[in-house]
Every structure is written in C-alpha cells, then in structure tokens.
Give the backbone structure.
Amino acid sequence: KIITNDDPVYITAHRGFSGVAPENTLPAFEKACKEAYYAIECDIHLTKDNHWIVCHNSSIDKTCNGTGEISDYTLEELRKFKITFGNGIEKYPNLQLPTLDEYLDLCAK
C-alpha cells in the first residue's frame, strides 16, 4: 500500500528522545513527552529482587560505569551505578537506570 496524505502517521520516540539525552533515561522520556511524540518505546529487564529496570540491554556494560547482567543485581545495587554513555551525557552527570514505575509515573504526567 502506498501511504497518502489521508493516512495517519505516528512518530514514536525510540528509547525516548535519545538524540538529545541518553537513551532509556528519564530526561530522554521527558523530552519526548514535551515534543508530543505519539508513543515512547523502551526496554525493561527484571532485577534479582524482582524490580523492573528500563535499559536497552540485559547488561549494564554499555550504559553504566559497571558491568554485569541486570538480573544479577538488586535494585539497591544497581542504584550505585551511574549512566556514563549517551547523547548529551555531559548535561546529566548523576543519571541512574530508571525503574519501570518511574517511567510510568512520568508518562502519567
């Protein structure tokens, strides 16, 4: 099918507005909300103590100042790591991996 001007087009913020803030972080999600994206895509993983964490990969190796699988850490242990990679990271020195609850709270606003 060819898309016409009458067809609705919905733009989704992939991992939040990850072009201006580190992906899958609260600032990236906040910026996506302010830009009025139709939807925000994110990835979630379960911690050792059954909390949902928002992170693209199942490990923190490419995102944080630590290594290992999210499923091997408790939420309290994961909170000790800082996000050190992503677009605009220099503007966000103390970012942590958000929980699914934090993400949903932000979306509800």
About this structure: The chain has a mean pLDDT of 93. Residues 34 and 75 are 28 Å apart (CA to CA). The chain is about 20% helix and 10% strand. The beta strands are 12-14, 39-41, 44-46, 52-54.
